[in-house]
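Action item from last week, closing it out:
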Amino acid sequence: GNWLEFIRYTTLFAKEPGTCEWIHKVVATGSVFYDIGANVGVYSILAADRVGKSGKVFAFEPHAANFSRLLDNIAANRLGHIVTPCDFALHEKDGFFPFNYMSCEVGSSNSQLCYLTNDAMGENQTDTSEIKHAVSVDSLVGSGRFPAPDHVKIDVDGNELPILRGMSAVLNSSTPPKSIQVETSRSEREHILSFMENHNYGSTAEHCSVCVTKLSDREKSAENCVSNTIFQPKN
């Protein structure tokens, strides 16, 4: 429908090759995969191919236009029996919060629950805002309506740490996720690493997107760019 969508579809394997490699390497048949910040669903569909008919993918996307296209893409790929789309936000606590739109366009990013800033965009000017219901991963799993995840991808443009806090019980359970990929910005990196360390998770790999790796060596250092960090339980 627009240029943003076109870029997301055509650069799937080139924009974040590390994410694709992680999904292909660790996600096995029958797994439960949480795609938190699914956007239009490119990684949800990739994960669905890996988990197969005996697995499940839960695609969380609160952005209304992106969620609508996510539904279209699930249907177009005939994956409704594997991928469950969820149009609510995830957070560290349950409740109703403002969801601020950076853009209402399909395929857009940087819209946020509660906040209006991130490292990539600075102080964001919101197009519009709506009230969204948000829940924690612990609440979802604790309700018995959602199975605990085997693998989790979190890419929500700055709200990663609150979502991680909201899954503390899942991380500390007897069967914690086998791997978690988290987008880590420079301002939240140390906080996220410390949080995961406190929950017995260690960083096993880190990769940037292609658009970030095109920056200068100084700008694309781990301390100065948004990157994806993969965590696994220490034992």
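Closing note: The chain is about 30% helix and 25% strand.
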